[in-house]
From TrEMBL:
Gene3D superfamilies: HAD superfamily/HAD-like, Spore Coat Polysaccharide Biosynthesis Protein SpsA, Chain A
One BP annotation, GO: N-acetylneuraminate metabolic process
Protein name (record): N-acylneuraminate cytidylyltransferase
Organism field: Thermobifida cellulosilytica TB100
EC class: transferase
Length: 383
C-alpha cells in the first residue's frame, strides 16, 4: 500500500442532516467520493472513517475499506487531522505503512480522478510535500477595517486589468495529498513545500447547506460523465414511463392509453439477454396488466407503498440493489429511486425526481423512454 485515500464521513452533520448519504446525481456523496478515489490510477486503497452504520454500509458496498470511528472523534470540533491520524494508526496496526496520504472530502461531489492522480504525482516525484486542490481566481477580495473596507489581495487605489494580474488560488476543500511521514511529523495537512493542483471551476462546488446541495444536484446533470448502464434488472413505473402520462376517457368512463411498440421490442431484447424486468404501478387499471402480459413481465399495481414492494421483489429475486435500475417520473417514485444503484428519470419528470436521478433519459415517456433504457443496458453488456 503506497498511496491510501482516507475519506472522513461522520453521521452527525448539522447543516444537512446525514449529508454524506445525500444523493447527488443519484449517488450518495460518500459513494461519489469513494468512486472518484477508486477510479484514480495511483490510489491503492480507499478508506472511509465513519461512526454511522448507513454510511459504513454505503461505503463498503462502493468498494471502500471501512474504519469505525470512535465516539471521541465524532464531534463538531474534532479536526480532520485527528481523524486522519486515527486512520493511519489503525492501518499501521494491520501492517500498512502508506508513503502518500490522500485526504478526500465527501462535500465535494465532482472530484476528477485525473486531478487526484496529478496531485499524487507531484508528491510521488518529490516536487512537493503537500498539495491541495484549488481554482485560479482573479477576484478582488475585501476586508472590513475601522477605516472602512480595504483590499486584501490588491491595492484598492489601483485597478489593474485582469491580464496584468497574477492569479490567486482559492482552496476548494475537495482533496489534499501529502507525504504520510511528514503529516505524522507536523500533524497538519500543510507543511514543507506546498503546491497547488488546479481543478476545473465547475468541479469546485462544495456542499455544506441545503441550498448548495440543490446547486450540486443541478450541476450534476451538466458535468457528470455518462457511465455504462450495467445492471441485472430494470424496474419501471407505468404511467409517464411506458405512456406519456395522459389518459383517454370515453363517454362511458373507459380509460385507454398509448404505448410505443419500440418499447416492447426493447423489453423483449432485455429478457432474451437475461435481464429481469418488472413493472410497479400505484394505479389499478386493467390496461397496466394487459400491457405487462403483452411484454411478458411481472406487474404489481394498486400499491400504496411502492418502495416496500420494490424491496420485496429485489429480495425475492436475490438482486443486489446497486445493480438494479428504476425508471420513474413523479414524486411517488422517489422512494424507489432511493433504493437502487441506478435511479433513472424521464426528461419531463417532476423536479424532485430529476434531482434524484443518476441518469435522465433523452426520450419522453411513451415515446421511447423504455427503449432507451433497454438499449443502454444492452450496450453495457456488449462492452
Amino acid at each position: 500500500m503506497s498511496v491510501v485515500a482516507v475519506i472522513p464521513a461522520r453521521g452527525g452533520s448539522k447543516g444537512v442532516p446525514l449529508k454524506n448519504l445525500a444523493r447527488v446525481g443519484g449517488r450518495p456523496l460518500v459513494v461519489r467520493a469513494v468512486d472518484a478515489c477508486r477510479r484514480a490510477q495511483l490510489v491503492d486503497t480507499v478508506v472511509v472513517s465513519t461512526d454511522h452504520d448507513g454510511i459504513a454500509r454505503a461505503a463498503r458496498d462502493a468498494g471502500a475499506l471501512v474504519l469505525d470511528r470512535p465516539a471521541e472523534l465524532g464531534g463538531d470540533i474534532v479536526s480532520s487531522e485527528a481523524v486522519l491520524l486515527h486512520a493511519l494508526d489503525r492501518l499501521a496496526e494491520h501492517g500498512a505503512d502508506p508513503r502518500i496520504l490522500v485526504f478526500v472530502q465527501c462535500t465535494s461531489p465532482f472530484i476528477d480522478p485525473a486531478d487526484l492522480d496529478d496531485a499524487v504525482r507531484q508528491v510521488r516525484d518529490d516536487l512537493a510535500d503537500s498539495v491541495f486542490s484549488a481554482v485560479e481566481t482573479y477576484e478582488f477580495l475585501w476586508r472590513a477595517t475601522p477605516e472602512g473596507l480595504r483590499g486584501v489581495n490588491h491595492d484598492h487605489t489601483r485597478r489593474p486589468r485582469r491580464q496584468d494580474r497574477e492569479p490567486h488560488h482559492r482552496e476548494t476543500g475537495a482533496f489534499y495529498v501529502m507525504r504520510a511521514d511528514g503529516f505524522r511529523e507536523h500533524r497538519h495537512r500543510f507543511f514543507g513545500r506546498i503546491a497547488v493542483q488546479p481543478v476545473d471551476p465547475s468541479h469546485a462546488v462544495e456542499v455544506d447547506s441545503e441550498e448548495e446541495l440543490d446547486l450540486a444536484r443541478a450541476v450534476a446533470r451538466a458535468v457528470d460523465r455518462e457511465e455504462p448502464l450495467d445492471v441485472d434488472a430494470v424496474v419501471t413505473d407505468f404511467d409517464g414511463v411506458h405512456t406519456d402520462d395522459r389518459v383517454y376517457v370515453d363517454q362511458d368512463g373507459r380509460e385507454t392509453v398509448a404505448v410505443t411498440r419500440g418499447d416492447g421490442m426493447g423489453v423483449r431484447l432485455l429478457l432474451e439477454a437475461g435481464v429481469r424486468v418488472c413493472v410497479l404501478s400505484t394505479e389499478t387499471n386493467p390496461v397496466v396488466r394487459a400491457r405487462a402480459q403483452k411484454l411478458g413481465v411481472p406487474v404489481t399495481q394498486g400499491l400504496r407503498d411502492k418502495r416496500a414492494a420494490l424491496r420485496q421483489w429485489m429480495d425475492d429475486e436475490g438482486l443486489d440493489p446497486a445493480r438494479v435500475a428504476y425508471v420513474g417520473n413523479d414524486v411517488n417514485d422517489l422512494g424507489c429511486l432511493a433504493e437502487v444503484g441506478w435511479p433513472i428519470a424521464v426528461p419531463d419528470s417532476h423536479p424532485e425526481v430529476l434531482a434524484a436521478a443518476r441518469l435522465v433519459l433523452t426520450r419522453p415517456g411513451g415515446s421511447g423512454a423504455v427503449r432507451e433504457v433497454c438499449e443502454r443496458v444492452l450496450a453495457a453488456r456488449k462492452g
